[in-house]
Amino acid sequence: MTKPLAVIYYEDILLGSQVVNRLQDLGYRVSTTSEPAALVEHAERELPLVLFVDSRVKSADTCAAISHLRKLPATAHIPVIAIARERDKKLQERVLKAGATMVAGDTAFLDQLPQLLDQVLTLE
DSSP labels for 10-73? Predict the structure, then answer.
């Protein structure tokens, strides 16, 4: 049986490697990208079970990428977990409005990862 695939967009190497390791521990295959412009193409090509987007990145418009994912028939259904600073309510609102399935706070994200996956994969 093939392991489920998760795609992660990140620029923060520490967070990215921690998420990759945690997902692999949970039985996922992981594909990463650190190029915001390539996120949509990457998701469209790989068709992952779930997407993780580090929306804390200042140099990228992650909201535009999430919005674009929602407009494409091939990727519209893929759950997107956006990572945001817990105190940045404006950013959380923007990524939800763009189409993220869920926003997770950056401080407890890794500890809550199994529960977050359960939530987004059982929605609808």
Answer: -S-HHHHHHHHHHHHHTT-EEEEE--HHHHHHHHHHH--SEEEEETT-SSS-HHHHHHHHHHST
Q: How many domains in the chain?
A: 1
Per-residue pLDDT of the chain (124 residues; tens, 9 = 90+): 689 999 999 888 888 899 999 999 999 999 998 877 788 999 999 999 999 999 887 667 889 999 999 999 999 999 999 998 888 899 899 999 999 999 998 777 888 899 999 988 885 5
Amino acid identity of residue 71, one-letter, is K
Q: What is the CATH number of the domain that holds 105?
A: 3.40.50.2300
| Domain extent for 72 | 5-121
